[in-house]
Specification:
The complex is a heterotrimer of chains A (294), B (371) and C (501). Chain A contains 13 helices and no strands. Chain A has 294 residues and is an all-alpha fold. Chain B has helices spanning 18-50, 55-66, 70-95, 103-120, 127-156, 160-183, 217-234, 236-246, 248-253, 258-285, 296-306, 311-330, 339-370. The chains are: A mainly alpha (294), B mainly alpha (371), C alpha/beta (501).
């Protein structure tokens, strides 16, 4: 197969990672753990399919995914910022809630316990697996543009500067009049929006919602966030690396040359190694996971 | 920012308030789960109403299908057994100030190692002879998986939450690879059956429980809970472990090595979760099957949280969550059993959110009462 | 500022403090630890609202304003603990919250230009594009000052700015402050160090125990006069002096002996720079000094809670360096740490459990803790030393500060020990508890224990110690026999006025 086709396949797999990991960078840079990306993606995927099913428009579907992801994110934000609940516990609860709610609504709306009916996605021009067809999907563009977008937001705007300040030293930010809670609410909501879009891409690409369809992709995005040391460009590279390995494994599936499980564990294994400081120390934002401003 | 030296000590209590403070401590422990259950009940009502059913009827059916008959109750006991182990695993970590999100893969690894041990044994040995080997195998399997984040935290300061999450995926993939590449029965996801040491079912003693999977692991769960309670609250090591969880700097002052407690607590946590694997592998199916642990690890977090990391509370909370799981099946004819998944998440969310709030309210009330 | 009263719970941090600062002067605010200086300036900066009193700036009553209001009115505060984000650059830290913009984006060029201009104008030399984490402490402090100036501050409050600086950095800071003053700015400077006060300030306000006790122009003042006002004349209690035994003779072999000890506060940052000391059995060696001069690190290194970079520590001739905290305890070290809530007690544990904390391995039956013995131990100590409420099962969190400290002192004195390290043993406790603790320390000395008493309270040191060493800048700058020590003399060593070796 051609290198170009391989790269196109990699990008296709990488899009949801890029979107969700961009959200991961923003939320973690603001000091809130990105455990919930998985839940936002799943919620986004469901909302996208449901809205597309009802209206017939994938654009409205993507909009619904944004709303769904942001709603779960706000629940996370209110619990951990306003009520100072433990972020890890709330994060797990949000993920379980996303699984439970999508299952329940699958039954309520579609009377199925496994999958929704097929819906139309974005109309793809052209055929084959090359870049041409891929790039007619607006969500692919979103995935490509989200990397420079997140970098611009974080490093070039006042909001990004404040995000970096509140995630590192909230008391210092507060002492010069930065509204720490408001910055955090916005950052978390934005991560919900982006991860929700990632879920929408996934669901519309497969033209249906299936139970638990994100299958850990939100955690791969979290792994990429950490492995990329919370920097948008490096995180994007991590996403592409993980996606490339996955593509390779799919290509080799028939040949038994590479057990799929060993490729599956790669992103997680690399992240653990990075956390242990064995290859370049991963130093998290200093206020990550802290509930109080001190 | 205030420094300790600048600021007077908080809450100068009068002698008369000591009974009040003890009552407040109890309220602090019990109130959040109660609040959570109330919230969950309200959400449950809404979900049931959205399906056009009557909440009263659904809840009645739920109770009948769980505590109302021996089979249902047996299933509740079976499910609670696994949750006691994962709940204790998470709870012992929390007592040491550590968050073990890895109970899921530790449970799977424990079951896998028990199955390996079982495949190595000749057939026909009585279960009492095999049991010690199984206990060691299961605890070792889970313990190794728990020791990894423990050592990485103690040695490199790697955050145990992220490491255990990531390790879940690594370990489950590894076990999946080992099973599918080397050990599985063709066309299935499980190993060949174990021929020795199946644990006796409850139904063998009480025939009414026929068909339910409740088995002798139940006794092991109760023994483990009691042993952990003894360890935490009666022994010197438990005293030191809880001190590390409450105030690591004070523990250090008291001559406790925080690093050592860290890896020991996470190893113990993993070993306890690993023991839970016996419930499925030896008590129910007699083989290891991929995915048997799914969900039990995360529910263990819910159980530990609602049970406030106390072995007794954990046992009660395990029964509660097992009742919900089994109850979901019982009411599936009226409302989707998936409703239960939502309720479990709501309970965790409500407990997590109300714990700091309740503490603030109660401590605030104590302070204003003294003025 | 007039009649400022600020209390936290039951403790009054200031009780009618006054501060009057003229425009265009450098005004020094001096006083011992806990005199209420920081509280007073935090009221000024809008961080605390006072319980009583008025604050006027430029003739306008601004009592009870907020931080934002203070910033807007040109009052800026440089905190003792820097409020800087280490991962951001100098320019980003300075402009945070009031960033220059170009459209939606940050105007980074303008930010750097502006900061560079301010930096050149004031002589506050900083590398504007560098991350704060890479700066020296002195540079970081300049960034803090720039932050206030960037926001238009005309009155800058500096809370102990020299505590963290090396001598050349201090001189550099003086030049900057003088330049600011000459440009019409007003400076309020909090410090303990009287040599600095005399060197830099135009006027001085002295606080003691929450009150303003003196106000003078610097050219009329001598360091000795300021020190007297700071510590007060009436500190040496006659009754205590009578109880003191004759000072230890040098002939006795030391029980605790420390030689050339060097300890780091953080990697590469020395806190103790070569301290040698010897305490004999039956002797109390007091260590005076303003906090932050290495006392905490000295005590923690002896107790085993902090590694010593070099030097030796010996107890009765036995080398302690290889022993961990518990083994040092078993070898005869007893330790009342200065940090009661974080270190000395597990607040959610019961009184009985806290009374064995650190000795839990001595109250066991097999693997188990011997609950009955722990309870009996607690009952005996509670009754003997009147800890209230007399309930061994009560969480120690519920006790008053004084009774919490009684638990700590009782525990450390009830164990089998030869050397007692007592750090700030009476801080934040009531008078009754202070008397109790002082009596216990004397009793320990009389039983032949060696006591190292670290305190910021000169009255306490003068009342209890046989000899008093003064720690300044990580070294012992003087060791005086009790007979020769006075609050005035110690105050001069503590504040760096006198530099004897």
């Amino acid at each position: 197969m051609s290198v170009l086709a391989y790269l196109a396949a990699t990008l296709r797999i990488a899009v949801p990672y890029l979107l969700a990991a961009a959200g991961g960078v923003i939320t973690e840079r603001a000091g809130l753990i990105g455990l919930t990306l998985e839940g936002y993606m799943l919620g986004g995927a469901f909302c996208a399919v449901w809205a597309t099913f009802v209206t017939g428009s994938p654009w409205i579907g993507a909009g619904a995914a944004v709303v769904g992801g942001a709603a779960l994110a706000l629940l996370y934000a209110v619990s951990s910022i306003r009520f100072r609940a433990d972020q890890v516990v709330v994060g797990i609860a949000i993920n379980l809630l996303a699984i439970g709610l999508t299952r329940f609504l699958l039954r309520l709306f579609f009377d199925s316990s496994s999958n929704s009916p097929r819906v139309g996605g974005f109309v793809v021009q052209g055929s084959g697996t090359g870049f041409g067809a891929l790039m007619t999907n607006p969500l692919v563009w979103a995935g490509v543009l989200v990397v420079p977008g997140a970098a611009w937001l974080l490093y070039r705007t006042p909001f990004g500067l404040r995000v970096r300040a509140v995630g590192e030293h909230p008391a210092a930010a507060a002492s010069v009049g930065v509204a720490v809670a408001r910055v955090r609410y916005l950052a978390v909501a934005l991560s919900g929006v982006l991860a929700g879009l990632g879920g929408a891409y996934l669901a519309l690409d497969q033209h249906q919602f299936t139970d638990g369809m994100t299958a850990g992709r939100g955690f791969i995005a979290l792994a990429a966030t950490i492995f990329g040391r919370w920097d948008p460009a490096r995180v994007a590279l991590a996403c592409l690396l993980f996606a490339a390995a996955e593509t390779l494994q799919i290509r080799l599936q028939g040949t038994q040359a590479l057990p799929s499980q060993l490729v599956e564990m790669l992103p997680y294994l690399l992240t653990i190694v990075a956390l242990a400081g064995l290859v370049g120390r991963a130093v998290a934002p200093a206020a990550l996971g802290k509930t109080t401003i001190e | 920012m205030m420094r300790v030296g600048d600021v007077p000590s908080p809450a100068e209590a009068s002698p008369a308030s000591d009974r009040a403070s003890r009552r407040a401590a109890l309220e602090e422990a019990v109130l959040p789960p109660v609040v959570a259950l109330l919230v969950a009940a309200v959400v449950g009502d809404l979900l049931i109403l959205s399906f056009g059913q009557s909440p009263g009827a659904v809840y009645r059916l739920l109770l009948e299908g769980t505590w109302g008959n021996a089979y249902g109750f047996g299933q509740v006991l079976y499910k609670a057994t696994t949750l006691v182990f994962t709940g204790l695993a998470v709870g012992v970590g929390l007592r040491a100030g550590l968050f073990n999100i890895g109970a899921e893969s530790q449970l799977a690894a424990g079951g896998f190692c028990a199955a390996l041990a079982g495949l190595a044994l000749p057939s026909g040995l009585p279960w009492l002879v095999c049991l010690p080997l199984y206990l060691v195998a299961a605890a070792a399997g889970g313990g190794v998986v728990g020791a990894i984040p423990g050592v990485l935290k103690a040695r490199f300061g790697a955050h145990e939450v992220i490491v255990t999450i990531m390790l879940n995926f690594v370990v489950l993939a590894l076990l999946g690879y080992l099973t599918s590449a080397h050990l599985h029965v063709p066309e299935t996801l499980h190993t060949p059956p174990i021929r020795s040491g199946a644990l006796p079912r409850v139904a063998g003693v009480l025939p009414a429980f026929h068909g339910s999977a409740a088995n002798a692991t139940l006794v092991l769960a109760i023994v483990t809970a009691a042993a952990l309670g003894w360890l935490l609250f009666r022994t010197r090591r438990g005293f030191e472990l809880r001190a590390v969880g409450l105030q690591p700097r004070a523990a250090e002052y008291a001559g406790v090595s925080v690093a050592r407690i860290t890896w020991q607590a996470l190893t113990l946590s993993g070993a306890i979760a690993g023991l839970g694997g016996l419930n499925f592998v030896l008590g129910y199916k007699q083989y290891y099957e991929e995915g048997f642990a799914t969900g039990a690890g995360f529910l263990g977090i819910a159980v530990a949280l609602v049970g406030r990391s106390h072995p007794f509370g954990i046992t009660v909370a395990a029964l509660l969550f097992a009742t919900l799981s089994q109850g979901g099946l019982a009411v599936n004819a009226l409302v989707p059993k998936q409703m239960v998944d939502v309720l479990q998440a709501v309970v965790i969310l409500a407990v997590a959110t109300s714990v700091p709030e309740v503490r603030r309210l109660l401590r605030g009330a104590t302070r204003s009462a003294e003025r | 500022m007039r009649g400022i009263v600020k209390s936290f719970g039951t403790v009054q941090a200031t009780r009618g403090a006054e501060l009057e600062v003229a425009r265009g002067e450098i005004h020094a605010l001096v006083g011992e630890n806990g005199a209420g200086k920081s509280t007073l300036v935090r009221v000024l900066a809008g961080m605390y609202a006072p319980n009583a009193g008025t604050v006027e700036v430029d003739g306008r009553d601004v009592t009870g304003w907020t931080t934002a209001g203070a910033i807007a009115a040109g009052v800026g505060m440089v905190h003792q603990h820097f409020m800087l984000v280490p991962t951001l650059t100098v320019a980003e830290n300075v402009t945070l919250g009031a960033e220059p913009r170009r459209g939606l984006a940050l105007d980074r060029a303008a930010a750097e230009r502006e900061v560079r201009r301010l930096s050149e104008e004031t002589g506050l030399d900083v590398p504007v594009g560098t991350r704060v984490a890479e700066l020296s402490v002195g540079q970081a402090q300049r960034v803090e000052i720039l932050k206030t100036l960037y926001r238009g501050a005309r009155l800058v409050v500096l809370d102990e700015p020299t505590a963290v600086l090396s001598p050349p950095e201090v001189r550099e800071l003086w030049r900057v402050l003088e330049r600011l003053r000459d440009a019409g700015g007003t400076i309020v400077l909090i410090t303990h160090k009287l040599d600095e006060v005399v060197e830099i300030s135009d006027a001085i306000t002295v606080m003691r125990a929450g009150r303003t006790v003196a106000r003078m122009a610097t050219h009329d003042a001598t360091p000795q006069a300021i020190a007297r006002a700071m510590v007060g004349r009436d500190v040496v209690l006659a009754a205590d002096a009578a109880e003191t035994r004759p000072p230890a003779t040098d002939a006795r072999p030391p029980m605790l002996e420390v030689r050339d000890l060097v300890v780091e506060r953080a990697p590469g940052l020395l806190a103790v720079r070569g301290v040698s000391l010897a305490v004999a059995a039956g002797e109390i060696l007091g260590v005076a000094g303003v906090e932050g001069n290495g006392q905490r690190e000295l005590v923690e290194a002896i107790a085993g809670l902090r590694p010593a970079t070099s030097g030796t520590i010996a107890l009765g001739g036995r080398d302690l360096r290889a022993l961990d905290v518990r083994r040092r305890g078993d070898a005869g070290i007893s330790h009342v740490p200065e940090d009661r809530h974080e270190r000395a007690l597990v607040l959610d544990y019961s009184v009985a459990e806290n009374l064995v904390l650190g000795q839990q391995h001595r109250f066991t039956r097999g693997a188990m803790l011997d609950g009955r013995r722990i309870l009996a131990h607690a009952r005996e100590l509670i009754a003997r030393y009147d800890i209230r409420p007399a309930d061994p099962s009560l969480a120690v969190r519920a006790l008053s500060g004084g009774n919490q400290q009684k638990v700590v002192v009782t525990r450390e004195l009830a164990r089998d020990f030869r050397v007692l390290l007592a750090a700030q043993p009476t801080r934040g406790v009531d008078v009754g508890a202070i008397e109790f603790i002082h009596a216990r320390l004397r009793a320990a000395r009389d039983e032949g224990k060696a006591v190292l008493l670290v305190s910021a309270d000169l009255a306490e040191l003068l009342a209890l110690s046989d000899r008093i060493a003064v720690m300044y800048g990580g070294r012992f700058v003087a060791t005086l026999p009790r007979g020769e020590a006075s609050a005035e003399a110690l105050g001069e060593y503590m504040t760096g006025v006198e530099h004897a070796a």
